[in-house]
Every structure is written in C-alpha cells, then in structure tokens.
Design brief:
- The protein is α/β, with parallel strands linked by helices.
- The protein has nine helices and 22 strands.
- Helix 1 runs parallel beside helix 2.
- The strands form six sheets. Strands 1, 4, 5, 6, 17, 18 and 19 form a seven-stranded mixed β-sheet that branches. A six-stranded mixed β-sheet has the order 7-8-11-14-16-15, with no helix packed on it. A three-stranded parallel β-sheet has the order 20-21-22.
- A hairpin with a 2-residue loop joins strand 17 and strand 18.
- It has three domains: about 300 residues, Metallo-dependent phosphatases (Purple Acid Phosphatase, chain A, domain 2, 4-Layer Sandwich), CATH 3.60.21.10; about 55 residues; about 40 residues, no CATH class.
C-alpha cells in the first residue's frame, strides 16, 4: 500500500501581504499529478488545512476542488489542526462522497478508517484531530477503578497538557488496534498495517517562526513514545519536513517510522532553507517498507535574506537574488537617504526592508521580536513585568493563560 502524507496546507495564508492562492492552486495540481504518477492509494492531510477558522471563500472552493480531484484517484483522509475550525472543516463529513474521510470531532478518536491498497494490503488509519487540552481532557476521561470489587467511579479528567490528552487518545487507538489484531490472528488473516495522524509538537522536532504557538501553561510538546506500537505516524504542525525517532522502530520484526511532511509552501522567512515536499510511504503487513521518500513541491519564488551596508546591497554582489522574495536588513550606522525606495528599485520582490545597524545600540527599551511561534502568555507576562517593574505572579500568569486559551477556543469555534 502506498500513502502520500501531507499537512499544513494553510489555505488562505499570505506572505507579508503577498496572496499565495495561485501558489496553493499549483500545489494542488502537483498533488493530483503525484497521486496519478505514483499510484497512491491514500492521501493523508494531518491538520491545518485552512490558515484560520473562517477561511476566505476562494480557499473553501479550492479545498472542495482538491478533495474531488484527489478522491478520483485515491482515498483521502483529512483531520483538523489548531488553525482550523473543527465544525467548519468537518461540516458534511457524514454525507461526503465515498473515498473522502474528514475527522474533526473528539467523538471520532479511536475509530479508524479501513483502507485497502491495490496490492491487497489492509491498513487501519487512526486520524486524530488537534486535541485542545481543556476540552479533550474531559472528553477523553475514562471511569476510574474504585478499589471495591469491579466497580468503576466517575470519569476523572486527564491532566491539562498536550501529552496527557494525546496519551489518552492513543490508549483508545491501541485498545481498538489490539482488538482488530486479535480478530486477524483468529481468522488467519495477515495483520493490517497501522497509521496514526496527529497534529502536535513532538519532542525532537525543529520549529520555525510561522507555526502558531500551542503552549498550555508552558507545556506544548509530547514525547515520541506516546506513539509506541504504530507502524507510521503522519505528523502535522511543524512546517519543516523532518524525521522523528520512535522508540523500538524495528521491534518485533516490524519497521516503524514517524515524520513531519512539513508545509507545501514557505510561510515565513525562517523557512527559506526548507526543501518543501510531501512524503511517499510504502506499507506492508510487516510495517514500513524501505525509506519514506520525499517528493519535492513546486516553488513559486525562492525566499532569501540579505544583510549588509546599502552600497553592498545595491552592488552586483547579490545579482542572483534580485528575483527572489527577499528580506533585506540595511546595516549602515546612519540611515541612508531613501534606502527603502532604493532597495526596492533593485529588488522588485523585496517583502521586508528594515534597518539593523551594526554595533551596540543606545536608547533601546528592550524591544523584542514576536512571531506566531512566540508563547503569548510569556509575551504578555514580559509586558506586564515591564510596565509594573515587578515579576509577574503565578496567579497572574494563570489568568493570562486562561484568557489566551479561551480566545483560541472561541476563534476555532466561531
């Protein structure tokens, strides 16, 4: 069986004011061609399909077209990420055409999609939507033993962390998979392969500036051991394509692997050195076969960065970058006349032109760069310390955390 693993499409996103819709259309065209050329059985999309909870109309139209075209050649399984509204993305999931599976609800956790490859291999795919800890810790709670006979007490909510809720979800996945394995063994059938789709920050992953922070009380990561026993873990959230080490990757005669496919396009200058791609994975009854293969994605325009004195920037030294989407830092100690206009005359696609003088600066009040990856609680706490001239109390940080989590929840459910 052949899988094509993708994630973090972020339909509707812009790059410093540049509309990326045409580039995202080209990405969908590319994906459809890969499905055809590589005889793909299943396309996986591990969350952050849209860039925001209420996407632009043209992005909704593009997704509808993408699902129809991909489903003409393969099964499509899609989950929601932290940028998506689960309700909006999952609307109509029960009545969609055969071959398209949208899983955005907590009620679906532990319920697999059964797919069969052209070679007859069976695979159980467990799609996990993004698990917001405050909601998931209650929904995934299980009755506790009372210690008196076989009785069970009321469900106890899980700990309020990404690790706790993802571990709770994986307990349901492993229990369901064990039942299926038992039935397979009893019938003499070959064991089916197993896949989990998850949208999370797994320990060891390398982040960039453009992923929205998902910290809860400072804890946003989960250990790779949470996914023990799964053949392939199709991760989403981090935008750089990368491998994640799993404990016991070759235990029991089965070969296992976990990867982030990364985003199809660069969504910040921190991603300028990424090699964007999707992941082609072959599965058999004994797990992953061979090394997952990266399929390069089309690049609409290269991203690059220049940092130098204005005279050097305008010289022939950077000729090769003049058609790039470029971020320029002018380092002259004194601001040159009309430097932004002069840079843009030479670099017509310059998206950012800023001064970054060399040497020590005076008069600074401790300015800091805030990106989507910054912890909003820490940013607000730092500001509070700056204006009050005292450390932020633990109770104040708890209030800030609660406010930001409620805002994020309201945005996803808007």
């Amino acid at each position: 069986m052949r899988l094509l693993h993708t994630s973090d499409w972020h339909l509707g996103r812009t790059l410093h004011g540049i509309d990326l819709h045409a580039a995202q259309e080209a990405w969908v065209d590319h994906l459809v061609e890969v499905v055809r050329a590589e005889s793909v059985d299943v396309v996986l999309v591990s969350g952050d399909v849209y860039d925001r909870a209420i996407p632009p109309v043209e992005s909704v139209t593009l997704l509808g077209s993408a699902l129809a075209r991909l489903a003409a050649g393969a099964q499509v399984i899609m989950t929601s990420g932290n940028h998506d509204s689960p309700t909006r993305l999952g609307f109509g999931a029960a009545v969609l055409r055969d071959g398209v599976h949208l899983r955005t609800s907590l009620a679906d956790v532990g319920r697999p999609v059964r797919v069969e490859g052209r070679d007859g291999v069976i695979c159980w795919v467990y799609p996990l939507p993004y698990l917001e800890p405050e909601a998931a810790r209650v929904a995934l709670a299980r009755p506790q033993r009372t210690g008196e006979g076989d009785g069970e007490g009321a469900p106890v909510p899980l700990a309020r962390s990404h690790e706790a809720v993802l571990s709770g979800a994986m307990d349901l996945v492993r229990a369901d998979l064990a039942r299926r394995r038992s039935r397979e063994a009893a019938s003499g059938a070959a064991p089916g392969a197993s896949v989990v789709m998850a949208h999370a920050f797994v320990v060891g992953g390398e982040a960039s500036e453009s992923e929205r922070d998902i910290k809860v009380g400072g804890v946003d990561s989960v250990p790779a051991g949470v996914f023990a026993g799964i053949d392939y873990v199709a991760l989403g959230h981090l935008h750089g394509p990368q491998r994640v080490s799993l404990p016991g990757e070759s235990a029991g005669g089965r070969r296992r692997a976990a990867r982030y496919s990364g985003s199809p396009l660069a969504y910040s200058f921190s991603e300028r050195d990424h090699r964007k791609s999707s992941v082609l994975v072959d599965l058999g009854p004994d797990g992953v076969r061979g090394e997952p293969r990266l399929i390069p994605a089309p690049v609409p325009r290269r991203l690059s960065q220049i940092e130098n004195d204005l005279a050097e920037i305008l010289s022939a030294r950077y000729q090769a970058q003049r058609e790039d989407w470029v971020r320029v830092y002018v380092t002259d100690p004194v601001a040159p006349a009309r430097y932004v206009e002069r840079v843009r005359a030479v670099f017509p696609h310059a998206l950012v032109v800023l001064r970054r003088p060399r040497g020590p600066q005076t008069g600074s009040i401790g300015a800091r760069v805030v990106t989507p990856a910054s912890d909003p609680v820490q940013v607000a706490s730092d500001f509070l310390e700056h204006v009050t001239e005292r450390p932020t109390a633990a109770a104040e940080r708890a209030v800030l955390a609660g406010v930001f989590e409620e805002l994020a929840r309201a945005e996803r459910e808007a």
